[in-house]
Design goal:
By secondary structure, the protein is mostly helical. Helices cover 79% and strands 0% of the residues. The chain contains 11 helices and no strands. It has helices spanning 4-23, 28-49, 57-83, 86-95, 98-106, 114-131, 142-168, 175-196, 203-227, 232-253, 261-277. Helix 5 packs antiparallel against helix 10 (232-253) and helix 10 (232-253) packs antiparallel against helix 11 (261-277).
């Protein structure tokens, strides 16, 4: 359990790094692709120099699936943020934590106690409060907007479920090799998306994406190790709810963004949910 706070911290800081990059005018698809490619290069060099670059069939299979899930989720997310109500997108993103919890129970037979079920339910309500109500302009509405929001929910939930799969695939001791295949897959697919849109790389995006990639390597390593020690039914509700609480507090006190009464109520409710889940 003592790894959970570290996993929460690195996930929270990762979001803040991306927010900083976006505020400085960074091109998100380029930052995302560069981030994954740098991760792949660093890991490939590490395994090359340690003469340990052999990859098992299971590592390749799991890494390919996670890589496809990651880049699909990021592409859908960045597209949705441009077209749909930002508050709705963020709500779908955070509520997607329910999918890996359901997968953990139904597929991997992890157990939950009644108190945790109540905590998860409160966490979902808290996440809705903390992410609902953004007044950003949006281009889509009605069924098209709902379809985009549903896609964000599904893709992010699948991505998180895939991270849990590493443990149940028996690859805990090879999680860095899984990350190598994952990042190479996501990075190359991301480059294809960028090429299709005719976007030229900027030096600032390459430098920023490289820094994010080095940090993301650390963050994902911590998260995968934590998932090897902690049930998904505990980890994902705690991660989702706590990170959003920290996001809201940081937005209010550091980024000087207003914290609505609904969001403040969500923070308080989220604290109660955390106590129940633990």
């Amino acid at each position: 359990m003592h790894w959970i706070p570290l996993a929460i911290l690195v996930e929270f800081c990762f979001g803040q790094v991306f927010k900083w990059a976006e505020r400085r005018g960074g091109h998100m698809p380029m930052l995302v692709s560069t981030n994954y490619l740098v991760m792949a290069i660093v890991l490939a060099l590490y395994f090359w120099f340690t003469d340990n670059l052999d990859l098992s069939a299971d590592v390749v299979k799991v890494g390919l699936v996670i890589g496809c899930a990651f880049i699909t989720s990021m592409t859908v997310l960045t597209t949705a943020l441009k077209l749909v109500h930002v508050g709705s997108v963020l709500t779908a993103l955070r509520l997607s934590m329910v999918l890996p919890v359901v997968v953990s129970v139904l597929i991997w037979n992890e157990s939950v106690i009644p108190g945790q079920i109540v905590g998860i339910a409160l966490a979902l309500i808290a996440l809705f409060f903390m992410t609902h109500g953004s007044n950003h302009a949006h281009k889509l509405s009605g069924p098209k907007a709902m379809a985009m929001i549903a896609a964000v929910f599904l893709c992010q939930g699948i991505s998180m479920s895939c991270l849990r799969w590493v443990h149940f695939a028996g690859l805990d001791d090879q999680h860095l090799k899984v990350l190598l295949v994952t990042s190479a897959t996501a990075g190359l697919l991301g480059l294809i998306v960028i090429a299709v849109h005719g976007q030229r790389p900027k030096l600032a995006d390459l430098i920023g994406g490289s820094g994010i990639g080095l940090y993301n390597l650390l963050a994902l390593s911590v998260i995968l190790f934590t998932l090897s020690q902690v049930p998904g039914t505990v980890f994902f509700p705690l991660l989702g709810c706590t990170v959003v609480i920290l996001d809201n507090l940081c937005a209010h006190f550091f980024w000087k963004e207003s914290l609505s009464r609904l969001a403040a109520a969500g923070v308080a409710l989220g604290l109660v949910a955390i106590l129940l889940v633990v």
